[in-house]
Design brief:
- The structure holds two protein chains of two kinds.
- Helix content of chain A is 24%, strand content 34%.
- Chain A is of the alpha+beta class.
- Chain A is elongated and about 75 Å long.
- The model of chain A has no long low-confidence stretch (mean pLDDT 87).
- Chain B has a domain of 262 residues: MetI-like (MetI-like fold), CATH 1.10.3720.
- Chain B is built from 23 helices and no strands.
- The N terminus and C terminus of chain B are likely disordered.
- The chains are: A alpha+beta, B mainly alpha.
Chain lengths: 355, 573
């Protein structure tokens, strides 16, 4: 049995249902990312787990015990969880030490014990010398670290993070991603992390849960999600991709409207039905001569746009059928705008998606 | 860390937010609705208990009642116009010109806010009573005129309008001055670049932009004048006419006509609600008022040759509203008899001695006043805080009702509330009449809206995540309120406390109906002593009230959160 379980969780505000039956099982000690665009219900799900919102249906169970359901809501203070907020929520009238010691004081630990534990966590988060400062005297990254320390020091059963890095600038954000992962490896708390940033999720998570419109689209390891997306939404949202639509003949081959035939190395086709094929930008080969082979998994088109990005070139190619495909090529493949090109879609990188 | 000793279970407590909500809703409901209920009940019932519309019939047929309403409305309108005429030019001068000493002038105008209106009326009695008034005495001495001549007679309708206007114009001034502050310079620059000259720009651009604030402020001044008891009681009664508040009060004198008093209070309640709605509608049109943005600092107009005439105007207004009245109070407090000249040989502290040591009634009144001020301010601050918390955080379904209940009393004039409270609590069930508790209820009800508005806007400034962070770490709602929220609101709460305190110790309108010999307050003693003509003692008491009020306001303005020179927002007098 998993440690944290969401079972058919529903949250409605009046007529508007924002979480539409979410099922999820999180094992003890894993870090799960809820990933999705804004408004997909991920933050609401997190607030349901924390107990800040009451569930309209379904259950949240921790260690087998129901903490949220339509009829029962254990208040947040009795859940033995910790949370890191988007705004950090550091109390401006307390020093770093007092902020971090707060949860321990509530647990009535003796003063010497508090001092020792706070000291240790401040060391872990590299905040030792700043213990006497007030939050307003800290930089954004330091505030973020205090917020982490405050949440970790109480040794929560479950740690919740609500878009913790969205207020940091790009450089710091990348650094803090690794920091969060490092602290997780050190302390191994069961963690639920909400973000809309896929690279943040990739860096930190053991398990990524992609959410869309109040439902879970797919749940898996970062490799699963990236390499084996199951839906068009997941393929597009994680990493970006080209989607070509067509009909399958029941085998692994999909025939697109403009006559392009794609053999798919993975995924599922819906026999006789409409099937989408996802192929990532950098998996497409681009060339000025037709590739060898039987004519499948290739298409010709005209370069509409070419951007030099230093490490690679980004092409937008208009196929003869009118569809546009983005492809990434090494810098030495330089083809001017307007020229006819051939694209090759290697079958092992073509993934069939049923919806 | 993972191998550390087991974290002890947090101490569990029951979440009491729902019971607290229910209790508060009931308490506030009783506080607001009970007086209004009895007001309506008495107005439509005979003494014997049968239903009647006789009180209302009498209200619209009795000439004295109609006259009282007519005079009150005329007076309020006059006060509105006068306030506007005094305040608008002054506000423009201090906000948008290089007037000398404009900061000090602003602070002094705020000072007339603190002056209890009844004290202002007494000060003007000292200055301009037809016989003994200092100005009239000086006038006669200068021109060698007989005793029957006088320059001003304050016991007249214009005198009354003038005196009330002197102490209500700050309502207009504050709103208009703030509006002038907010008119961005580039709007005026836009007019100038299109060829508008300074005067044209002022007339066509700037003034229309502050017009809503001017109207809103004027409505408040009108409302203040209409519901004021002290000043009319001091000035109109000797002049031989009633306004509606004094008329209602007279219905409480023997033989009491409570039903008629209740009926007479109803139109006042309706007018108040309408005026407040009007004010809200005017200020609520946000598209019209100028709001922040990056529009740059307001432009300062150079007055040039007009600098000193403008300064003279400002000084003149201040003399009438602050300097002369205060000097008159001070002088009278220090001489044996009100008519004596102040010289080194006549100066005496006997009035101070009398008030502070000899006269037991004043000592009791001072004690009562400050105890009540303290209790009211504390109660309002605590209740407002809890209500604001529940309402802004929407803890319970229907929490908005609490906020509405807490703001509702703003529409109940003091004298109307006095009548309602008398009818509610001066009966065998409660037996609160003659105790300080009925006064405490009155003051809490009167001051709750101002306290609530101040504290609730402070609550809106505290990010909810700050509270959630505390809860997820194991603190209950109340504990979070105590450990996290209240320390962050401390300055706002202290400020609200101080304003309620200042507002309470100057209250007279409701107090006059609810006080008895054992529960006299300073404001009532001042009123009583005025009837017996003991001006020296009055001035001492008045000065004590003023000094305490100023100390409190000064302390508040020193607090960083409010910013120095911030305006005082006390309600009614």
């Amino acid at each position: 049995m998993s440690f944290l379980e969401l079972d058919g969780l529903v949250k409605a505000y009046g007529a508007l249902t924002v979480v539409k039956g979410v099922d999820l099982a999180v094992d003890r000690g894993t870090l799960v990312c809820l990933l999705g665009p804004s408004g997909c219900g991920k933050t609401t799900t997190l607030r349901l787990i924390a107990g800040f919102a009451n569930a309209s249906g379904g259950e949240v169970r921790v260690g087998g015990e129901v903490v949220s359901s339509a009829s029962r809501n254990v208040p947040p203070e009795d859940r033995n969880m910790s949370m890191i907020f988007q705004s950090y929520a550091l109390w401006p009238h307390m020093t770093v030490f007092q902020n971090v010691a707060y949860g321990l004081k509530l647990r009535r630990l003796p003063a010497t014990e508090i001092k020792e534990r706070v000291g240790r966590i401040l060391e872990s988060t590299h905040l030792g010398p700043l213990a006497g400062r007030y939050p307003s005297e800290l930089s954004g990254g330091q505030q973020q670290r205090v917020s982490l320390a405050r949440a970790l020091v109480v040794e929560p059963q479950i740690l919740l993070l609500d878009e913790p890095l969205s207020n940091l600038d790009a450089n710091l954000r990348e650094e803090m991603r690794f920091e969060i992962r490092r602290l997780h490896d050190q302390f191994r708390y069961t963690t639920v992390y909400v973000t809309h940033d896929q690279s943040e999720a990739m860096t930190t998570a053991d398990l990524i849960v992609v959410m869309n419109a109040g439902r879970i689209e797919q749940c898996g390891t970062p490799e699963d999600i990236y390499e084996r997306p199951e839906t068009e939404f997941v393929a597009r949202f994680i990493g970006g991709t080209n989607i070509l639509k067509g009909r399958s003949d029941g085998s692994d081959t999909v025939v697109c409207a403009d006559g392009v035939v794609l053999r798919c190395g993975s995924g599922r086709v819906s026999p006789g039905g409409e099937t989408a094929v996802s192929i990532r930008h950098h998996d497409i080969r681009i060339g000025t001569t037709p590739p060898a082979g039987d004519g499948s998994n290739q298409a010709s088109g005209v370069v509409e746009r070419q951007i030099y990005l230093g490490s690679h070139r980004d092409y937008l190619v208009k196929l003869s059928g009118g569809e546009r495909v983005r492809a990434v090529a090494p810098v030495n493949v330089a083809i001017p705008v307007g020229q006819q090109v051939w694209l090759h879609f290697p079958p092992e990188h073509c993934r069939a998606l049923t919806h | 860390m993972t191998d550390a000793v087991l974290m002890p279970e947090r101490v569990r407590r029951i979440d009491v937010s729902v019971p607290v909500f229910v209790l508060l809703a009931l308490g506030l409901g009783v506080l607001v609705i009970l007086p209004l209920f009895w007001l309506v009940w008495y107005s439509v019932h005979e003494d014997a208990g049968g239903f009647t519309l006789g009180n209302f019939v009498q209200l619209v047929t009795d000439d004295t009642m109609l006259r009282a309403y007519g005079i009150a409305i005329a007076m309020a309108a006059g006060v509105g116009v006068l306030s506007c005429l005094l305040a608008t030019p002054l506000a423009w001068l201090v906000a948008r010109t290089d007037l000398p000493g404009r900061r000090a002038i602003r602070a002094l105008v705020t000072a007339s806010f603190v002056t209890p209106p009844f004290l202002g009326a007494i000060a003007w009695e000292l200055l301009a009573a037809p016989n003994s008034g200092i100005i009239n005495v000086l006038y006669r001495t200068l021109f060698g005129l007989p005793r029957s001549d006088s320059l001003f007679n304050i016991y007249t309708f214009p005198g009354l309008v003038f005196v009330i206007g002197c102490f209500t114009y700050p309502f207009v001034f504050t709103l208009v001055a703030n509006a002038f502050d907010r008119v961005p310079g580039d709007l005026e620059d836009a007019s100038a670049i299109l060829g508008g000259r300074a005067a044209t720009t002022l007339w066509r651009v700037t003034l229309p932009l502050v017009l809503p604030s001017m109207l809103a402020g004027t409505l408040i001044a009108v409302l203040q004048a209409l519901t004021m008891f002290g000043s009319p009681a001091i000035l109109a009664l000797p002049a031989g006419f009633h306004v509606i508040t004094t008329k209602i009060w007279s219905l409480f004198q023997f033989p009491p006509q409570l039903g008629l008093a209740a009926a007479a209070a109803m139109p006042l309640l309706v007018i108040t609600v309408l005026l407040l709605r009007g004010q809200k509608a005017i200020l609520g049109r946000r598209g019209y008022t100028v709001l922040g943005g990056k529009s740059g600092a307001p432009r300062i107009v150079a007055l040039g040759a007009w600098r000193w005439p403008a300064f003279a105007f400002a000084l003149f207004v201040l003399c009438l509203t602050v300097i002369f009245p205060y000097l008159a109070l001070l002088k009278t407090a220090l001489v044996p008899n009100a008519g004596d000249a102040l010289t080194p040989s006549t100066i005496t502290l006997s009035h101070f001695h009398f008030v502070l040591f000899d006269f037991s009634a004043t000592r009791l009144a001072l004690y009562n006043t400050f105890v009540l001020g303290f209790l009211s301010a504390t109660t309002v601050a605590v209740v407002a805080m809890i209500v604001a918390y529940i309402a802004t955080r929407k803890l319970v379904r229907g929490a908005g009702i609490l906020g509405m209940l807490a703001t509702a009393p703003v529409a109940i004039p003091g004298i109307v509330l006095g009548v309602g409270l008398f009818l509610s609590y001066a009966n065998p069930t409660f037996q609160l009449y003659g105790t300080i508790w009925i006064l405490l209820i009155a003051f809490v009800t009167i001051e709750l809206p101002a306290g609530y508005q101040q504290i609730s806007s402070a609550f809106h400034g505290v990010h909810p995540e700050l509270e959630e962070a505390s809860r997820i770490l194991g603190a209950s709602r109340l504990k979070t309120l105590w450990l996290i929220t209240s320390p962050m609101l401390r300055t706002s709460v202290v400020a609200a406390w101080c304003f309620v305190f200042v507002g309470t110790i100057r209250e007279l309108s409701a107090t006059i109906l609810l006080t008895t010999a054992n529960t006299k307050l300073v404001s009532v003693i001042i009123y009583d002593l005025n009837e017996s003509g003991d001006m020296g003692a009055i001035c001492v008491l008045g000065l004590i009230l003023l000094v305490v009020s100023f100390l409190v306001v000064f302390a508040v303005n020193r607090m960083p959160v409010l910013g120095g020179g911030g305006s005082v927002s006390t309600t009614r007098g």
